[in-house]
Write a structure and sequence with these properties.
The protein has 523 residues and is an all-beta fold. The protein has an eleven-stranded mixed barrel with strand order 21-23-26-29-32-34-37-33-30-27-24. Strands 3-6-9-12-15-18-20-22-25-28-31 form an eleven-stranded parallel β-sheet, with no helix packed on it. The chain has a four-stranded antiparallel β-sheet with strand order 36-35-38-41, with no helix packed on it. It starts with 5 loop residues before the first strand and ends in a 16-residue tail after the last helix.
């Protein structure tokens, strides 16, 4: 008889099932497992077309010491601690999953192998209400498809390394950060609605290539900050012991077994082979005639808990497009904070997509550089003059995108250079008023509704011509624009003129910022 190293829990179509545990487990002396209502030491797959309600009053709802896969069905998990916990990974391809957890909602814990310890959501509907992090991936999280709703007391999505948003519809209410990665966060696609958080997108490098992001933050909406090396925690006390790179090469200098992955120089460690885009085996994870269902060749979404496909390197565009590269255009923003917090590794790079920001702190805040290479960005900054719509420590370059960034004048910062003309002007208005940028031909090149009072506006557009005089119209009535607030005409309002240029001498520049509160913005 064949031996299986996978465990399947399959609900029959039309059935309603319940599993629960008591508040105390009688464990062997010195043991801390099992720790969940459903506990497996092997790969665990939950699937089927029925419903399963799991209550874990002791600790966790579901725990796998290997891979945890959700392949379908309706799953409702209530847990005193973690809702869904997989050591090597948690992967979701389909189904409707609702998690209410006193600790983390969805969690992966392998901190000994940086090719594992990930969470991948590739379809279905996931709703999480967590007393700690909503999704806590040790090294990597990604969302490629599906609908995800997260309410969390701490971070909505957290990773000690990287994260990718490649699709789907995501709604977040977070007590701390909406998306927090230590090293790299990439947004390629999707509809992301962050209704409340402290900081929205935070990582050493935040790369936005596409999608629609609405970020309401009480502090910085997008923040590029120096990464803090992982040193372990109470649950996973050992640091990474497998620091091989993605091609399986020997550890780099400073990455010896049993030591922390050394990322002080901006290295990323081993991302491994990440799951393919949530492809299910033909017919789904359904067994026949009482036999255990067969897993797809190589497992679900990657071999034996391996990481999803390699992410773009250091701000490069995903396959099919190369991001414009920011040049050395000179000029520096005023230094804020300590010099130890300033690093060339810190980067906010926007290559595409549409971003709406309302920030109580800085709208865009980098401890290094900012590159606007494409896309459309609308920032309604803070009312606190100690913060700004844009804040950076080294350079901010305008190379092809459209931006209106409105905020206080006290710490206002514009671009230091680039290939696309820009300007920074003193223009005042109140929350609820429209800001429209009008070209010499009278057409609206960009427009947004400000959410907070402002005294300063930074603008850039690929439709600008070097040396052109444009108008910033505040409080007018805009009509005929597209969904991004571009095109059409404006009537009424008060107007301020500005000459746009690719040089900071004419375009304007400034210094850094701090903290604050918020609503949503729509262009």
């Amino acid at each position: 008889m064949a031996a299986y190293n996978e465990v399947f829990v399959t609900t029959a179509e039309g059935t309603r099932n319940n599993l629960s545990s008591g508040a105390d487990f009688a464990l062997e002396e010195g043991e801390d497992e099992p720790d969940a209502t459903i506990f497996s030491k092997e790969d665990l797959t939950l699937n089927g077309n029925g419903s399963l309600e799991i209550r874990g009053d002791y600790k966790n709802g579901v725990t796998s010491k290997d891979d945890l896969v959700i392949g379908g069905g309706t799953l409702v998990v209530t847990a005193a601690d973690n809702g869904l916990k997989g050591k090597d990974c948690v992967k979701m391809a389909d189904g409707t999953v609702t998690v209410t957890a006193g600790g983390d909602g969805v969690k992966s814990t392998n901190d000994e192998d940086t090719a594992r310890g990930f969470v991948s959501i590739d379809g279905g509907t996931l709703t999480v209400d967590a007393g700690d992090d909503g999704v806590d991936a040790q090294w990597y999280f990604r969302v490629m498809d599906g609908t995800v709703n997260v309410t969390s007391a701490d971070d909505a999505f957290h990773s000690e390394s990287d994260g990718l948003i490649g699709g789907g519809t995501i709604t977040v209410d977070a007590g701390d950060d909406a998306f927090h990665c230590e090293y790299e966060l990439v947004v390629d696609n999707g509809i992301i609605d962050v209704q409340s958080c402290v900081e929205g997108y935070e990582a050493q490098q935040v790369i936005v290539n596409g999608g629609t992001s609405n970020l309401v933050a009480s502090d910085d909406a997008i923040n590029a900050a120096v990464a803090e090396a992982y040193t372990g925690d109470a649950e996973t006390a050992t640091a990474s012991a497998s620091a091989v790179d993605a091609q399986g090469a020997a550890p780099q200098e400073g990455e010896e077994n049993g030591q922390n992955v050394d990322r002080a120089q901006g290295g990323k460690g081993n991302r491994g082979q990440r799951p393919q885009d949530g492809q299910m085996p033909e017919g789904g994870f359904q067994g026949e005639e009482g036999q255990p269902p067969e897993m797809p060749e190589g497992g679900f979404g990657g071999d034996d808990g391996q990481m999803p496909p390699e992410m773009p390197q250091d701000g490069q565009m995903p396959e099919g497009g190369q991001a414009p590269q920011g040049g050395d255009f000179g000029g520096r923003g005023d230094m804020g904070g300590g010099m130890a917090d300033v690093s060339e590794d810190c980067l906010i790079q926007i290559n595409g997509g549409t971003i709406y920001i309302e920030a109580g702190g800085d709208g865009l805040d980098s401890n290094g550089n900012i590159e606007l290479n494409g896309g459309v960005v609308y920032v309604s900054g803070p009312t606190n003059s100690g913060n700004g719509a844009i804040d950076y420590e080294l350079n901010a370059t305008s190379n092809g995108g459209t931006i209106i960034a409105a905020g206080p004048a006290g710490m206002a910062a514009g671009f230091t250079g680039g290939s696309t003309p820009f300007a920074m002007v003193n223009a005042s208005g109140n929350g609820g008023q429209t800001i429209a940028v009008v070209g010499a031909n009278g057409q609206v090149l960009a427009s947004m509704e400000a959410q907070n009072p402002f005294q300063n506006v930074v603008i850039a557009s690929p439709d600008f011509t070097e040396g052109e005089t444009v108008s910033i119209v505040v409080g007018g009535s805009v009509s005929g624009t597209d969904a991004q607030g571009i095109g059409g005409n404006v009537s009424g309002g008060s107007s301020v003129e500005a000459t746009v240029s690719t040089t900071a001498a004419q375009g304007g520049m400034g210094g850094p910022g701090g903290m604050g509160g918020g609503r949503g913005i729509r262009g």
